[in-house]
């Protein structure tokens, strides 16, 4: 009885979580320019419009470029920091770790406003590249967390063995540590990539008037009324996001990345 | 490789780049925001450095008090609902076979990373007249004709719980995945029903986790800046919306910054409190 009730509850929660996406997916297939559900007539035209309409295509490309470069920059910031904390006994370096976690925990509007004050003070307000730097710092938490877990999982006896045989830090990093932490680095990149792709407020405050990313484009379009194209873009985003997390789960240890390890000591 | 304190400049070199990036692009913007919050506003959208507290004095107005208390109440309600559903859900989730757990986690992560723009759009579609759930109620004969359920307080609450639920589950997940199964087994051996074991053993054992998660969900909900605009009415605007509105549309950066500083203080105090509860759990 209880087991049955549990499955029912889980099913219900799953259904409620999926419901908005399912309705949007249905709406995106409408033949006419209307938001009906169930859709009236079936047409893939709205999906084609994302790629043929210069506005939507431009926003898609801008989003992908910003997400890929800011995720790469976030990893470039997180990797040396996580490595340094793992390699050396330097408690003071933890302060930088806390700095890296802060933007993710605080309400996003705070970070957004901080960047707005910063870029306008230095006269760079509205430059597209500022979004890349802002997103990289905003999302540095994710590669920082995954890489810290990754370094923590490296068996130090491998490192001892390598250095006893005469390998210096650089060689140990390249031949022993790097292959072991690579999956964590890729997960960190993927997390930052997906979140940057979906991020609105920081991108909007920093360069919303000059660079239109997809979330900004959707929000601007919302003001002129809802169209099935927005529904199609939403479905595309959900699929892309789920695919990235699916890949992380396929090649990495997702429960462990999310903190489900058993304490060894 | 001996793990000792770094000595030479060369040994310190790797941390230079990350430290520089974080200081220049996080600490300095933060400091600037505090400086702007005490700047004097010049009509026309600019401000000049000064040390005035006028922006903070505006907090004492009835309007601001109303927005603040509404924001706090809404965030508290969202946190309670999300943890109330999320705790039993996560407890079951952590006991599923690994493959099923991974599927749920991918699903939850996908929803968690969805843009607020997309969540707002999806919920307003789900609650709309033409595509919404009222059509379903009409089809089964419970309602005469479809109607729009958004914008309304209910729509806003649903959207915000939807947004906070995956976050709550992922915050609870580590603690519940590491919960010692022997605890529940012992109580079951002694004759407690599964429900009784859950409420008299699991919930009390995780009391601090629950409090810490409530606070985290509360801070998360405080950060919601678009859903009140998309799913609520103007009287449902929260502090985050007001900050965005002042900064972008009213061009009043000093006042927006003052509110943001206030929001930081509230959030930091709460996060500190939740860390305190989290630490007790480990002790």
UniProtKB/TrEMBL annotation, chain A:
It is found in: Cell inner membrane; Cell membrane. Residues 60-248 form the ABC transmembrane type-1 domain. Keywords: Cell inner membrane, Cell membrane, Membrane, Transmembrane, Transmembrane helix, Transport. InterPro entries: MetI-like, MetI-like_sf. It holds the Pfam family BPD_transp_1. It is a multi-pass membrane protein. Its main location: membrane. SUPFAM superfamilies: MetI-like (SSF161098). The chain crosses the membrane at residues 7-29, 59-86, 98-119, 131-154, 175-195, 201-219, 231-251. Gene3D superfamilies: MetI-like. It comes from the Bacteria. Belongs to the binding-protein-dependent transport system permease family. This is ABC transporter permease subunit. It comes from Azospirillum melinis.
UniProtKB/TrEMBL annotation, chain B:
Signal peptide: none annotated. This is ABC transporter permease. GO terms for biological process: transmembrane transport. Gene3D superfamilies: MetI-like. The keyword Transmembrane applies. It is found in: Cell membrane. Keywords: Cell membrane, Membrane, Transmembrane, Transmembrane helix, Transport. Residues 68-274 form the ABC transmembrane type-1 domain. It comes from the Bacteria. It is a multi-pass membrane protein. Coiled coil: none annotated. Pfam families: BPD_transp_1 (PF00528). InterPro entries: MetI-like, MetI-like_sf. Belongs to the binding-protein-dependent transport system permease family. CysTW subfamily. The keyword Transport applies. GO terms for cellular component: plasma membrane. It comes from Azospirillum palustre. The chain crosses the membrane at residues 12-39, 59-90, 102-123, 153-173, 209-227, 255-277.
